[in-house]
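User: Before I run my own analysis I want an independent prediction to cross-check against. Here's the chain; please return only the C-alpha cells and, at the end, one sentence I can use as a sanity check.
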Amino acid sequence: MSAVREDARLAALHSYHLLDAPRPVVLDELTRVAGAVFGTPMAAVTLIGRDRHWFAGNTGVPGDGGPRSGSFCGQVVDRRLALVVEDALAHPAYRDWDTVAGAPNIRFYAGVPVIDEDGHALGAMCVLDDEPRTAGDRQMDLLRTLAGQAAGHLAALRNRRLLAEVGDELSRAISREEDFVATVSHELRTPVTTIQGYLELLVDNEELAPYRMLIDPIQRNGERLVRMVDHLLAGTRPAGAPLPLLRATTDLATVAEAAVAACRAQAAQRDVPVVIETGPLTTGVPGDLTRLSQAAEQLVRNAILFSPAGRTVTVRVSGAVLEVIDTGAGIPADELPHVTERFYRGGHARDQAVPGVGLGLSIADRIMQAHDGILTVESGGRGRGATARMSLPG
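Assistant: C-alpha cells:
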C-alpha cells in the first residue's frame, strides 16, 4: 500500500473516534452473531491503526488490541482481501506469532475487510478459534455480509457523533445513551468473559478431566449471566428513546441461521432439536441484520425453554415473515395480551422456575416496532405450544 493511500486510510479511521473508546454495543452484538454462525469462541471487528490493532467489537478475544505486526487482520487490510488460515500452527508464516505460540493460541482465522463508504479498508470482521477448522463458502458469504453491516454501523455512529457536535439534541441523547450502555456493558461483561476464558483453558487440560462436572456448570452459568446482562441493557432502554438501526437489505434466511446458531448450545443441552424451513423468499427486507437476529434469537430461546425434551422447534421463513413454532407449554389466553410487557413472566415460567427475567419478547417487540414491523404471539392454550411471528414490510 502506498504511503499516500495509507495516510488517507488512517485519516478516515481516526474520523470515527473509536480507538481507545468504549466498544459500541452494536458491534459487540455483531461479533456474537459471527461467532454463532461459525461456531467459534472468538470474533472481532478489528480496526487497524498505523502500528496497532484495536477491537471495536469483540466476543471472546482477550484484551482490547495489540501491535499491528503479527495481526491477521492487518494482513487483510494490507491486501484488501479475505484471509482464511485453517491451522496457524502448521503455517510457516504464522506459527511463531505470539498470538499463535501463546495466548489466545489462535489456530483458525477467517477475516474479510471492513470497507467504509469512501472505499477505505478500516479493519476486518473476523472469527477465530483455538482449534483448527475450515470455512465453507456459505459461511464466508455470511462473514462478508456481516462486514458490510459493520461498515454501515461505523458510518451511522460517526454521523450521529457529527450531528451531536453541531447541536442536534436527538443525536446527543442517543450518543450519551450509547456511551453509557457501552461503558456498563464493558464493565459487566469483561470480568465474566475473562472467567470464561480461563474456564476454557481448564476444560482443555486433560489432567483436570475429573473436575469437568464442576467446571461445566460454571461455564453455563457464566453464559447465562452474560445473556442476562445483555437482556437488561437491551430491555431497559427508556421507552421514548429511539432504537438506532442500520437500514439495509437483509436476508431473513440469514437472520434465521444466525438466531438458531446462537441457540445451538442451549438446544443441545435441553435436547430440543431446532430446524429451519424456508418457503418462497423475497429478495430482501429493509432492516438491521444484527437487531433482527437478536429479535429472532429471543423467540428461538423462548421456544426452547418452554419445550419438553425431544420436542422440535421449527423456524419457518417465507417472504417477509419469520415464524418460530413450538409444541411446548403453550400460553393461556388471559396471559397472551401481556407477553410483550417488560419483566412479565407467565404462570408456567414462575411455577417451573424457567430461566429468564421476562424481557425477551419485550426486546423482540421493540425491535419489530423500530422496523415498522409487527410481532404477534399465538397459542392454543396451556400445553398446546405457541407460534411467535415477525412480520416485516415487504
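Sanity check: The first helix runs from residue 3 to 14.
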